[in-house]
Amino acid sequence: MLRIINRQLDAERELKRIGDRTFSGEIEPQEKAVKEIVTTVKNKGDEALLDYTAKFDRQVLEVVNLRVSGSELDAAYQQISQDLLHAIQLACQKIEAFHRQRVPRSWVQFNEDDIVLGKRYTPVDRAGLYVPGGRASYPSTVLMNAIPAKVAKVPRIVMVTPPGEEGKINPAVLVAAQEAGIEEIYRVGGAQAIAALAYGTDTIPKVDVITGPGNIYVTLAKKMVYGTVGIDSLAGPSEVLVIADETANPTHVAVDLLAQAEHDPMAAAILITTDEKLAYQVQKEVTRMLEGHPRKTLTEKAIANYGLAVVVESLEVAAYLSNLFAPEHLELEVSDPWGLIEKIRHAGAIFLGHSTPEAVGDYLAGPNHTLPTSGAARYASALGVETFMKHSSLIQYSDTALKQMSSTIQILAQAEGLPSHGDSVRLRTE
Amino acid sequence: MLRIINRQLDAERELKRIGDRTFSGEIEPQEKAVKEIVTTVKNKGDEALLDYTAKFDRQVLEVVNLRVSGSELDAAYQQISQDLLHAIQLACQKIEAFHRQRVPRSWVQFNEDDIVLGKRYTPVDRAGLYVPGGRASYPSTVLMNAIPAKVAKVPRIVMVTPPGEEGKINPAVLVAAQEAGIEEIYRVGGAQAIAALAYGTDTIPKVDVITGPGNIYVTLAKKMVYGTVGIDSLAGPSEVLVIADETANPTHVAVDLLAQAEHDPMAAAILITTDEKLAYQVQKEVTRMLEGHPRKTLTEKAIANYGLAVVVESLEVAAYLSNLFAPEHLELEVSDPWGLIEKIRHAGAIFLGHSTPEAVGDYLAGPNHTLPTSGAARYASALGVETFMKHSSLIQYSDTALKQMSSTIQILAQAEGLPSHGDSVRLRTE
């Protein structure tokens, strides 16, 4: 049952507990396991990948089967419905259109004394996308990772995903990859896949950036190889926070909470409302909808452990609590969502008004669904085209400009005790 | 002596060795030490800070002395020359002017069927700047970290830096902080300072983002707390790569190599040139200038271990080798630097032409001097205003728009086995 809380202090404590759920347990055993996997793959390459795939995925592969073949890619189109293909294509279009907005562009600026300053943006050479297997093997994950990389014009994009039964990969995932323009796909998952992308093996190329969600092993492996490669973020379980006033429809709020909870027993679904009656109606609806829910067991678990309804006296307090939690997804189910937005400081994505359930953003509104979790919205943003780009600062001084700045630079160099810094200017301008 | 290499394969091998120098050694003992420090600070707060400061910095402080007082801040102005003050002020102005260019701005876009999409940019609530002590206690480091945070409008910015003799902090560092608008400064360094910023203590506030360079302990601590807070990057020792043709002045190239080497015995200084004669002239000049260099011992060590001149047959090969190395600083000391730039794929900052020594960018050209090292330029960029900002995606659908997309979303939700996702749309549109 969805718990209801009325006191702000209790709410703050509960929100903190839920926010800390990801890394609250003891993770040293996993860290140790991941370290061993990463080191072994770094040293033994493909051989280690096959060993770990046999051990963890219980699939016995040979090196030649690591890469998904052209005929498997073709066959995937026969294994999904036309309706699904068209849905994937429409999502693809809409996600691409959004990501093409405000792509970083190189610029230079000409200043007095012929000083030229600027930034030059370029894509990374190679990107590696991780797509989870099993319960979370989603075509939408593929689109949300692949399309920004494509828009960034990354020359080589590879995808890794663990093999399922008989080494198979979800055909919808294979179709989504191809629709997004990716055909280099390897059948490997877990920490071993992350290590392969970070260090390269005979079969799998070393990449510059690794993105995509995964379980705790994948996440710890990403953290471990960060610095050798770039990563998008350390993804934790998903979460939604709904701020609702008396204009919200309790059935809609309830189904949105369940849409989050059904992802994962660790998912969090939180309602903050100024309307106590609404809280009880939502509680009732959640209970009703859980009956006969196809994913009842895990969804119920998420609601019981990380579900919460908080009744507050004003939308200001609701915004305050939401900012404390810094949710991945924030729904503003209130009469004036644009009026409330000014009070929101931290949220991965904000869904405004009564006709914008989070599912719209999960699939096809356009903005990326890879968002900061576990409070990371305090400092991080959605995955985007810039995840796959970087810039070089550009600086050109003329003779005149250097002379102009010469004494200032020498004073600073002297203060820092770096004589050659000063000399590099002095020798050019004396 | 600066080594000269003529064969491309040797050059590739040497560049790889130099690029890998940061983490090539065994760092497990340091990792273990850092883990203990971070955990202890997390659990014991200020008490642990004082203990570690006594142990590592050999300074016995009390809690009330952790924060640098107003009178110390005032006094710092009396301890530096007017010339240095004016140099800091000019650098401040020029760095701020550059960082005010292209600050991320919120935007929304109105689409058909009353769909509103956009991104809302906000600063982080709190930023923590780390400024090293000892050999690398530089006012320029303060400016390059503080100014982007100020331009981002971060409401609370705190600085930490280890105490020197008698608990003192470099007055130029204190003045630079104040000129950049920072007055909350704590006398603590090392991994313990990073832990304090990540978890908070009674005295030091928990922040959202930690930036700034440091030694291996600081860097490992930043990696460890990444996920709890955001970080700028994992900084390694500094490096310059100079591409020069026959138009370059050997004395200028030599002094630029030394200006990098004088930072740190681990610093790397690399010349790639199409002109063999230049290589030998630079070698001779480096040797000559090292005589009587005030930081001879460490500079010589850097040149011996991580200095290199490579003679190549063309600027294309030079660019190829440079891209392999992905240098933090790249100088193009060639007749047509803008012609060469198209071939450069990875570099933190590019200094164009004969009158742009790296020192210009280190101090006051404007672009940030906090740049990706150790090959991270393959995927990362300079510190910037965006390091202290994040965005929330904005999505608003109208009734009509949701109806329009209803069946597509339901098809995708069904394919992913997430019934409540589909229901959240179906229940709103049926």
Would you tell me the overall average pLDDT of chain A? 96
Largest interface: A-B, 118 and 117 residues
* CATH architectural group of the largest domain in chain A: 3-Layer(aba) Sandwich
**Global geometry of chain A:** globular
Q: Fraction of residues of chain A in helices? A: 40-55%
Query: How many domain regions of chain A?
Result: 3
Task: Give me the oligomer status.
Answer: homodimer
For the secondary structure, the number of strands of chain A is: 14
Number of helical segments of chain A?
A: 18
CATH-level-4 superfamily name of the largest domain in chain A? Nitrogenase molybdenum iron protein domain
Strand order of the largest sheet of chain A: 1-11-10-9-12-13
Provide the β-strand percentage band of chain A.
15-25%
> Which residues of chain A form runs of ≥5 with pLDDT under 50?
none
Quote the CATH topology of the largest domain in chain A: Rossmann fold
The CATH class of the largest domain in chain A turns out to be Alpha Beta
Question: Can you offer a commentary on this structure?
Answer:
- Chain A is an alpha/beta fold and 430 residues long.
- The first copy, chain A, folds into 3 domains: 149 residues, 3-Layer(aba) Sandwich (Rossmann fold), CATH 3.40.50.1980; 204 residues, Nitrogenase molybdenum iron protein domain (Rossmann fold, 3-Layer(aba) Sandwich), CATH 3.40.50; 33 residues, no CATH class.
- Chain A is 47% helix and 16% strand.
- Chain A contains 18 helices and 14 strands.
- The longest helix of chain A is centred in the first third of the chain and has 18 residues.
- Chains A and B meet through α6, β3, α11, β13 and α16 of A and α6, β3, α11, β13 and α16 of B.
- β13 of chain A pairs parallel with β14 of chain B.
- Chains A, B: It comes from Hyella patelloides LEGE 07179.
- Chains A, B: One of its GO terms (molecular function) is NAD binding.
